[in-house]
Amino acid sequence: xxxxxxxxxxxxxxxxxxxxxxxxxxxxxxxxxxxxxxxxxxxxxxxxxxxxxxxxxxxxxxxxxxxxxxxxxxxxxxxxxxxxxxxxxxxxxxxxxxxxxxxxxxxxxxxxxxxxxxxxxxxxxxxxxxxxxxxxxxxxxxxxxxxxxxxxxxxxxxxxxxxxxxxxxxxxxxxxxxxxxxxxxxxxxxxxxxxxxxxxxxxxxxxxxxxxxxxxxxxxxxxxxxxxxxxxxxxxxxxxxxxxxxxxxxxxxxxxxxxxxxxxxxxxxxxxxxxxxxxxxxxxxxxxxxxxxxxxxxxxxxxxxxxxxxxxxxxxxxxxxxxxxxxxxxxxxxxxxxxxxxxxxxxxxxxxxxxxxxxxxxxxxxxxxxxxxxxxxxxxxxxxxxxxxxxxxxxxxxxxxxxxxxxxxxxxxxxxxxxxxxxxxxxxxxxxxxxxxxxxxxxxxxxxxxxxxxxxxxxxxxxxxxxxxxxxxxxxxxxxxxxxxxxxxxxxxxxxxxxxxxxxxxxxxxxxxxxxxxxxxxxxxxxxxxxxxxxxxxxxxxxxxxxxxxxxxxxxxxxxxxxxxxxxxxxxxxxxxxxxxxxxxxxxxxxxxxxxxxxxxxxxxxxxxxxxxxxxxxxxxxxxxxxxxxxxxxxxxxxxxxxxxxxxxxxxxxxxxxxx
Length: 660
Ligand code: CA
Hints:
Blueprint: H1 3-26, E1 51-55, H2 59-64, E2 69-70, E3 76-77, H3 79-85, E4 90-95, H4 114-126, E5 130-135, H5 158-178, E6 183-188, H6 202-219, E7 224-229, H7 235-250, E8 258-262, H8 271-285, E9 288-294, H9 324-340, E10 345-351, H10 363-373, H11 390-393, H12 417-420, E11 431-434, E12 437-442, E13 452-457, E14 462-466, E15 468-469, H13 473-481, E16 485-493, E17 496-505, E18 523-526, E19 532-537, E20 547-553, E21 559-567, E22 574-584, E23 589-597, E24 600-604, E25 612-625, E26 632-640, E27 647-659
């Protein structure tokens, strides 16, 4: 070996040693993230330190249940390492006070107590990531529908409770600190829409948030304190939250840094609305803002035998197809509007992106793991705390179709979006999925299916493409003879699956029967001055279409109204009148459909019950007749006593059809 080659060898050894050291610190040498198929438009002005968060609170329960995660080469990998390699810089973990019953059985949902958070925190630290600590101040799930006080605090007055909240927060944060965890943000309460920890007045909520904030400043003085709400589509509520908090902040209570929101695109309004309300709050009160929870579906299918919150029905607002590309476009566009449309926007956090099936071939097989390891959203043991909901409807993951992993633990291409947003990955747009078509067909008229459907391209643009429908003459005849019903016709366009939702209907003599034109032709008479009584545009709360007549009122006995429509040119004959209603918290009710002829009531339906969200009931007047030239008025009378939280309901799809 000559002198020169020896030198070269030495140099190479040095390089190798450095590489070795590097690998010792960081595990593996980070490979450049690339994708041949995923379309990602660059997000301009993206700050280096923009928070790309991932909530994986359930991960330890998942791993205990046997779930494994793989990298893009198909090699088993550490989830935290994989996320870090793909541009995630922050992990979020929820913390419940005591999600166990007296015998030590976990309530599920990851059994997320502080022990769980510390374990997650250690792995976060080992990958050089930061942690957002999400305190629910409850023994189990806290969200807009539920803010239950921890059992150990239930007999405390507010003074004792705020002392307990301070001590609990401080103790938890100290444990994280001792474990070497870089906590960059602490969330004091989770989706606290007007309630928290069993308290419902803003003063008491502010006391508790303040306790959490003070504990944070003591243990992690550099960390940001965040408040967190849901439903940004209700902009007035958001204004109220921010204003109330500002009032208490002015009075020395609850100094916070970040106003954070959940934003699930299929429920929470438009991106424009999101950025407008966050901008308003950021600028009015001098706060940072962020999307603390979001997710999107890559499929309509469930994979763990436990129903999902969002599925493949026709009744969901779909800004993007349920595909990995759809997920990526959703994440990218939220990021873009937070970076470029929302001053003081500091980050986004994806919710439970790794909460996939525990892998069994039946619900029973999975159920055993959910019970034993807490890997479902709730176990039967949750009955010890929340018998009416979790203790009754316990099960598996409701978001396995919104993960960034498939059912086998392999990462979806969409996981790369966090990294690829920084420099862009604008591949040539190709069809990603076909938009659903919809047709309403009178039972007495021929069925006309559309000749084209919209292809959703990978860049989320639309292109009309020819479609062929799979339907026989015999099927079409049966649809006409089968009475009013909904059908899904399958088709094919550009080699991809297409669907047409067909509603076979009887001719309806009402105008704007489904409130899609804003209630045109309807007369709504408010007899008690309800807080809210109007046509609402919210697809998930509509029986069909995207609008319905909505009512809500806080005070007892403040709901009494009629909604009616007069038909002047109804031909002679026998007719049937029906409409549908759902709602909740209504207490004693008096609700019925009625028919008036020339001002005289001639028929009335039976009482229509109100029994809960999405539980529609029909009020039916089975038959009425009327003399020629008469004025026929059909309507619904609604009176609700209310059951404490404000009576609410939705009315949709009124039908006047002939009966022969
Ligand atoms: Ca599921």
